[in-house]
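== Item description ==
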Amino acid sequence: MRRWVRIVLIVIIVLLLILLIGPLLIPVTPLEGTVPPEQLADPDSRFVDINGLQVHYKIAGQGEPTAENLALVLLHGFAASVFSWREVMEPLAESLASEIGTVMAFDRPAFGLTERPLPGEWVGESPYGAENQVELTIGLLDELGVERAILVGNSAGGTIALLTALAYPQRVQALVLVDAAVYAHGGSLGLIRFVANTPQMQRIGPLLARRMRGWGMDFARSAWHDPSKIAAEVWEGYLKPLQAEDWDRGLWEMVRASGSHNLEERLAGIRMPCLVITGDDDRIVPTEQSVRLADELPDAELVVIPDCGHIPHEECPEPFLQAVADFLYKLP
């Protein structure tokens, strides 16, 4: 019996050593074929330094933003970019023409063509964390001379929109929350962050992130009610940022910086008008969560778009644009 106990203990110790030391021995070779983000820019791409971070953004509308203009700022979701708003940026700007409005969209850290700093290249909190993304949003408004804006946030971009409205209510005129990620499981996020920050996962994390080329396709398909509508050029647009330098390490840094913000307990503090939009077939942020969000916000209306998934601004742009136009028309 003692012999078998000794053997079991040895096996357990060996397995623990493999788990603890093995990941530290796995070689992490540099990505091949990547280029500086600026080399992937479109003709209408713009770059600006905000809080020490080179941010990629685009503008549509009547001239440059001013303090007097009506400004919409579009915040994309996870694994997306400015490209996600391609169907609605210009139409939104055209609908604002009579108001001399401007529509802006930027790539949040870890996505698109915005710079991806690596550990040791920043001081203080991670630029990939939600709090710094709030400061980045306000910093962009400051840089462009916009005093107040309407924030339009999809999925995790909706999280940033809400956090910005809570931190800077005087800078936010209204919110459009598109399948916003609000009712997250804080305990799960905390565990993910703990595991992601272990030395072992910090080592192999970028290797896991690189597998996004595979699972990212499945994620994108699940975001559409009808994935057959995803044209080849749309896939190319999704994959383009994966040619940018350090995209894998930036994505992992975003995972490391993730956390819970208890938004569901803070919704009463959102005092500006809100429009909640969701597809009736959202399999990422279930439709009932958006219904709940509209009910729990103090001043919100709800629009459910039929036969539509998690990204109605891409899959169902016409009803999305109509809902936003109706909402903006009613604003004071």
In short: The beta strands are 46-50, 53-61, 71-75, 102-106, 149-154, 172-178, 274-279, 300-305. The chain has a mean pLDDT of 86. Residues 24 and 203 are 6 Å apart (CA to CA).
